[in-house]
Structure formats: C-alpha cells, structure tokens
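Researcher: I'd like a candidate sequence for this fold, 133 residues long. If you have to choose between options at a position, lean toward the conservative one.
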C-alpha cells in the first residue's frame, strides 16, 4: 500500500471514530443534576445545559427567612455545580465534533488526491531514473 493510500485509510479510520462518537451522543451528554441543602428544604436543579433549571424551597424553608434561603440556595447550587464538574471530568469546553469532522473531510478531500498525484509523479521519476541506467 502506498503512503498516500495508507494516509487516506488512517484518516478515514479517524473520521469513522469521530462519526461514531457524534452518532451516539447519549453516552456523552450531560444529564440534569439536583442538589439540596438545609436538611432538604432547599433544592437546586441544573439542566442538561448546566444552567439553573429549578429552585425549590419548602414551606419550612420560607419560615426560616431570607438569610436561610439565600445561604442554602448558595450551598445547594455549589453542590450541584460540583456534581456536574465531577460528571464531566474536565473544565475544558467540549469541542464541536461535527465541525471537527467537517474540517477533516475538507483536509481529506483536498490532500488525498494530491498525495496520490505526488506518489504517481515520484513513481514516474523513479521509473525513468531506473530506465536510464
């Protein structure tokens, strides 16, 4: 197998892996996270997008007053954010896999024919050199 064909095969393999990762997003998607504080009287839910989706305060929490609510919303929110961070495993942004795949497709479409042409040219030059000996 020529180097151009080997390159094309490896690139196609990498693109297939990328396509598989984007085809099964359920494995990689975040799920809503709920945390509570104040003996369960304050609950905060983060949506799959990481934004606050819901804050729930029990009637007893309201009887405790605004300072109690504010403190335990803060504690529950931080706990939910910690849970989300542990689930994701990184603070880095997740790359746009579809954009990466599109970029790789452009590289493959442009480079592979050029590598093939270059390989053919080198083969012709070597054939001429070997014929002149």
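Model: Candidate sequence:
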């Amino acid at each position: 197998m020529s180097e151009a064909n080997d390159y094309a095969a490896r690139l196609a393999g990498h693109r297939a892996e990328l396509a598989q990762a984007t085809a099964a997003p359920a494995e990689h998607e975040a799920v809503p996270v709920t945390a509570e504080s104040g003996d369960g009287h304050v609950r905060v839910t983060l949506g799959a997008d990481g934004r606050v989706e819901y804050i729930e305060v029990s009637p007893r929490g309201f009887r405790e007053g605004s300072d109690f609510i504010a403190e335990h919303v803060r504690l529950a929110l931080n706990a939910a954010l910690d849970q989300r961070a542990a689930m994701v495993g990184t603070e880095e942004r997740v790359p746009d896999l579809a954009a990466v795949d599109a970029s790789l497709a452009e590289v493959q479409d442009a480079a592979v024919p050029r590598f093939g042409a270059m390989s053919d040219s080198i083969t012709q030059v070597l054939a001429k050199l070997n014929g002149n000996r």
